[in-house]
Amino acid sequence: MDVKATAKYVRLSPSKARDLVGKMRGLPVADALRVVDFNERKGALHIGKVLRSAIANAEHNAKLSVADLQVKEAVIDEGPRLRRYWARARGGASPIQRKTCHISIVLTDGEEEAAAEPDESRA
Predict the structure, then answer these.
(1) Can you give the pTM of this predicted structure?
(2) pLDDT, one tens digit for every residue, the chain (123 residues)
(3) Structural domain boundaries of the chain?
(4) Would you say 24 and 32 are in contact if contact means Cβ atoms under 8 Å apart?
(5) Distance between CA 76 and CA 22 in Å, rounded?
(6) What distance in Å separates the CA atoms of residue 81 and residue 83, rounded to the nearest whole number?
(7) Burial 23-36 (b: 16+ CB within 10 A, else e)
(8) Which CATH number fits domain 2-110: 3.40.605.10, 3.55.40.20, 3.40.50.720, 3.90.470.10?
(9) Nearest CA-CA partner of 108 in 66, 75, 77
(10) How far apart are the C-alpha atoms of 55 and 64, rounded to whole Å?
């Protein structure tokens, strides 16, 4: 069964977070937490929050065991950019783009969900 958690509009450049997420894909949850906890980058803080949220979703909503979980997907999508300007000489301005990203993490226990069978009694 798959469990998902997302964080949207995170004030972090997507390119700075993608390399850290690449190291987590396919790892068991305990190893993925270690990767995030012992990394000093700003992205590690935000990715760790989303990972812990996905673990909590798996425990409480789907009643899955944490020991069986592993990271199936971890995606950093680009969010909207905040456009600002920096004052320059003689009344000019230089553009500044403050980037945002959306962080999505999908955990799985390795088992497929039971497919919804059509109800034969209603036919």
Answers:
(1) 0.83
(2) 899 999 999 999 999 999 999 999 999 999 999 999 999 999 999 999 999 999 999 999 988 989 989 999 999 999 999 999 999 999 999 999 999 999 999 999 877 765 555 655 555
(3) 2-110
(4) yes
(5) 10
(6) 6
(7) ebeeeebeebbebb
(8) 3.90.470.10
(9) 66
(10) 9
